[in-house]
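so my prof wants the structure for this chain in the tokens format not the other one, which i didnt know existed until like an hour ago. anyway here's the sequence
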Amino acid sequence: MGFTDLTWTSADGLGLHARDYAPVGEITGLPVICIHGLTRNSRDFEDLAPLIAASGRRVLAVDVRGRGRSAHDPQPLNYHPGTYAADIGALLDATGIARAVFIGTSMGGLITLVLAAFRPEAIAAAVLNDVGPELSPVGLARIAAYAGGASRFETWAEAVDYARAINEAAFPAYGAADWDRFARRLFDERDGGFVLACDPDISAPIRAAAAQQKDGAQALAPDMYPLFRALTKDRPVLLVRGAISDLVDPPIVARMQAAAPDMAVVEVPGVGHAPMLTEPEAWAAIIQLLKRS
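here's what i got, hopefully its the right format
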């Protein structure tokens, strides 16, 4: 299933992009807005978005500023969830979408939490994909170690090797064809080489925090329980966790459930951070959430 390119402008003048998947057949529910993780882009949802659109819903898979086909920010310290949430607000205004279901992977989930604080009426329901109001220091340290690192490779084999090295712990069952396809979501071919589809400077706020505090990685996700409680109040929320995730561990899940007893939880076996959401367990849970919104 194809998509059209949707563009809008941020409050500070950046050109931003999303993939716009039209609903198939009769419209059955609210639009769905999919937001990717820290170093990723809208291609992460190239399998999930058509499935949702086939159920009769419009799907917007965004490229967060500095990623994919969205403009890079000339002020790298703007790369944080507050700015990103404002960009999503601008998207809602540009498209006339008053309410939507939000699916946020990793950083995308944090953006959804922030959006719930200043635009709560826009969120009808939410999927938090392997992310929460607190995150394991183990996973945060891993992400901080590669964010903003190597971004260009001269051969496709090198690009695929990089994708596998960074992500193989999360997808131990992947084979060569899987990694080739995975890498195509991460890289653009440019000037005779292969370049990550994100601004290396997205890690600038992390580096700045590291210079001021012992655990700079924690700057990726400070305590967000107040925002989490706001998100989970009076709306359906689903937590999808990779069973071998190093970012959302079982004690964190337990604390999230204590704070939000009505939150649905599903675990995807054999997958770490973060599930692609087309796994049977994840997809079945998403269908159930969509039926409620």
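also thought this was worth mentioning. The chain has ten helices and eleven strands.
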